[in-house]
Protein 1
Amino acid sequence: MENSYKSKTGIIGYGASIPHMRIKVEEIARVWGKDGLRASSGLGIKEKAVACIDEDSATFAVESSRIAIESSGIDPSKIGAIYVGSESKPYAVKPTASIVVDAVSATPHMTAADFEFACKAGTAAIQTCMGMVASKMIEYGLAVGSDTAQGKPSDALEYSAGGGAAAYIIGPAEQSIAIINDTYSFTTDTPDFWRRQHAEFPEHAGRFTAEPAYFRHVISAAKGLLEKTGTTVEDYDYAVFHQPNGKFPLRAAKILGFPESKISQGLLTPMIGNTYSAASMIGLASVLDVAKPGSRILCVSYGSGAGSDAFSITVTDKILEKNRRPLESVMTLAKKDVEYIDYAIYAKHRRKIKSL
Amino acid sequence: MKRSLPLLWRRINERYNLVGSICQTCNTPYFPSRKICPKCRRKGKLISQKMPNEGKIFTFTQVHAAPAGFEHETPYFMAIIQLKNDVKVLAQLVDSPVEKVKIGANAKMVFRKIYEDNHEGAIAYGYKFKIV
């Protein structure tokens, strides 16, 4: 069956948002009586980005969307669909997407919804927009991955769960700074990580989250896409993998045969932690910040539960046009004006103190 | 504290996108929006207008005793921002270290949570500014 979306759509604009506060993994380890250096090197994460008390996945989604629209140069009223993927919605019932709709002035003649698929909800939103643009249901779609990731105090997740967002305007290939050549997904029922209704923090299955979950899905989706597109690892200049920690993506790259030099530009987790729905999308944004026309990018997300979306992307000449990249690169956002906080300030901002 | 939901809703355009008004007769912008132009009176014709989202610090103060709902954010800066069209806006400053908060410093609008009615109530989002 031929895919109607194939090569017809691409990225028109993109943007990322990363909070300015950081907490070092060593500081978290200090509070829980663990060896900080060991915790940090074990995860491959030095520090993580922390959302302020007045930030949440909706504010990150809006900030990244505004940057994406600015870099796309399109009139926001032409956006026909906005989908926000997140697992840390400010409201259990009431869409984050409708907040974004008004905040980017895309209201009201369009459709919007929130997506949930653990850490791959944002890439599922990209796929949905691709289908809608290719079928001409809409002219442009906005897909966002945004999270203020939760981690139970002292749990392994607390060392890695960061915050941030990335947004992509998906539109016709001929206007794109990067064409999405094809996409391929791999999905199974794998209970490796979840958060039950009304539960405050997610639960996970420890080591089970690795082989049968992350690696099985990421590797299968990547191999499936390579096979479907008739490409090999050598055809790609960059690869971005979902990054729950700093080590998993490195191992996934090694299994597939990608050298570290091809994934370092899109590996942000060591600096900002695991931004869940935003993780692979921020990584892709970082690659687009430096990619040249003709560069090929393989991007593979992973969402617990479980599934992976893989994308084959080719950068076009349009990326060199004026203002088609955001003013500040992802690497700048990750490093500029960073404020380091201790665990007590972190606990206040993340409302881990009972009275908050 | 329970706040007015219709008020929150009515101010979405103003708070999300700095939408004020401009008099088409004398070209004067206003924020918040006005129904009547004080300069042109009955000759004035006001329409909605988005304000520029950048400006400079006109003046500022540091708040140590905050009103209800902002207690956990102290100490924080409140500033009057002179926008690029000369309209002045009062707003909270965020992500801005003390040494950067100065009169004349460039500031840009950011989208933040303003307040929420406890953990079960509605959340009010809107503009704050940060030094750039």
Note: The CA atoms of residues 19 and 93 of chain A lie 25 Å apart.
Protein 2
Amino acid sequence: MKLTHWRILRAPLMKAALSVSAAVLAFAASSTADAQSKDPIRIGVISEAQSVAGSSIPLGAQLAADEINAAGGVDGRKIEIVSYDNHSSSAESVRAFQRAVNEDHANAVIASYISEVVLALEPWAARLKTVMITPGAASDVITQNIAKDYEHNKYTFHGYLTSTSIAQAVCDAAKDLLVKDLKMKTAVIMSEDAAWTTPLDASYEKCLPQIGLKVLDHIRFSPDTTDFTPIFNKIEGEKPDVMITGISHVGTQPTGQWKSQQVPIPMFGVSSQATNSTFWKDTNGATEGVLFQAVSGPGVAVTPKSLPFVDAFQKRFGNVPSYCGYTAYDEVYYIADAIHRAGTTDSDKLVDALEKTDWVGTIGRVQFQGKDTPYPHALKVGEGTITGLMLQWQDGKQVNLWPTEVANGKLKFPSFIKTN
Amino acid sequence: MLFWQILIDGFAISSLYALGATGFTLIFGVSGVLNLSHGALMVAAVVAAWVAGGDLGVGSYLGASIGVAVGLVATMLTYFVIVRPLQQSRKIREQEKEIFILTATLLWGIMIQELIAYLYTNNAKTVLPIVEGVVTIAGVRTPANEIFTAVVCWLVIALLWLLVNRTRAGKAVLAASMNARGVTLLGIELSWVYMAVWAIYGVLVGIAGVLLGMFLGVSSYSVGPLTASAFSIVVLGGLGSVSGSLIAAYVVGYLETMTAYLVSPAYRTIPALLLLVFVMYVRPRGLLGRR
């Protein structure tokens, strides 16, 4: 064959070759589609594996997956956890999310306890149409984004309390513990200047006066603050009955200085670092008497599932789970439950099924707010769903004081605290 | 009342800044090294004291001593592993050595920081205080530990002054800071002078770190800010000038405390940084700098 003939023939040959390969590809695709129904359900877990709080996320998720698989899986399909360390970085989280969906074919993703990270992932959940649930971020903006553009952002679910509902939980506890029991009347709000405290503080300012605590002042300080002496002295000069806290980036330092300066005013509110079991050691016991909001506590049976979970976690990993270990564990369970109810892993149907979630987990009864509420896909809070707890550090232990049904101790302050 | 509060709190924090910056400026003055792992060495001392006092349960005195010892060991390690090989290298041109050492100590600091975060998490830690309780001075309830901090800082600075100005070894150090070649011509081994200065620096870093851990507490995140604060105090005071650093430490300490009390704790560090920029414009060699 001469070269010219080859040139003439080349086009039809190419066409034939293309159509053959297209057919092969189509066949391959159809056969993978068949296989997929027997494939495992893959859940991507993107977390801050090096931090105290974040390291519990993949462990909690793995524990739930293993339990579900041991009981036969979801309609015969096993659950597989694919874990990614994001080094607390938004950019790395976005790359991990793309990899989870595009290469590892995750059916849903559990991601991060940092609000900034979750907010960076939210548009990607929308673009890649993949369900994402956060086990620990708090910013209200996450669900506000869903309200703004539901069709687009509906793939994101907020599996932990929003700042607004955390503030509400603190007020509910303060009403019983401080106003009713200790007859307190005045408070100063003390919080770090960060994205998550803006809605928290706004909520505090609204709900504290409603329960009968007059807000004398509102002090916001930089999260880089190391010397808290001026802050405590200023607050003491205003003579409030209690300091209502909103701290997460700081914790050890203000607590240590509160004790060494013997500030006579109790600290009550959100102090994320105090929820860590190592906080007593980090502060050399200065945390004695500090009150902090949480959704779980050692030895507290919030639901019948709480304690068995902690036992299993401790037995397998040798330490106690952080708050987002609980939520990540629950999330795997209710994702599995939603897939079972939907009968598919198709994202849109999964969203519909997750919206109808009614799951008793380890921190309470999980239900999501509807799409017409101001915070769609945020957890419902309050009696009957999730109330949260109010714990206090006493003699090296975290003791739960509120709500009374699950309390395992009584309020007790170190001697330098003065209450009327 | 507010006046006394600012006076007392400002004094304690300024004394601590002064001690931290003294060692930093000393090794610059004598050996021309800007040690950017300064903050990491301080944090290493704090974490060692925290582990010794908490996990090993050796009590506050021994815990603090172990912290200082670890500060010293880490500093000597910095000198022998990072700084000296670069100083003596024949492959690096003389005029580039400063930038090599700057980069190397910065990276070394990051390595120490990451190691601490890996082994002991990035949570902040406080060191068991040696003295507990509070004392009331002029109506201000002051932690006894704060007074202890200020007293120790000044004792150490006074001892350092005696050592440099009143002993033969100290005079050799002083001479080395003025003219290194002159010292060698007098028959003094320069490498011994450097080693002695680094050892003194190590003790200062250890003590400053442990006191900081007792007074305020630190985490692995504090590495950068601690180096930066020592650096800006030293630049403000004049690189290499110990008395300039002492004055600058008090200027910065009081400016920060006053801002926190009178304006807002959120803006604490801003005026001191503005002052630094201003001094750079009008007097680039710093308050008491020689060059």
Note: The two ends of chain A are 106 Å apart (CA to CA).
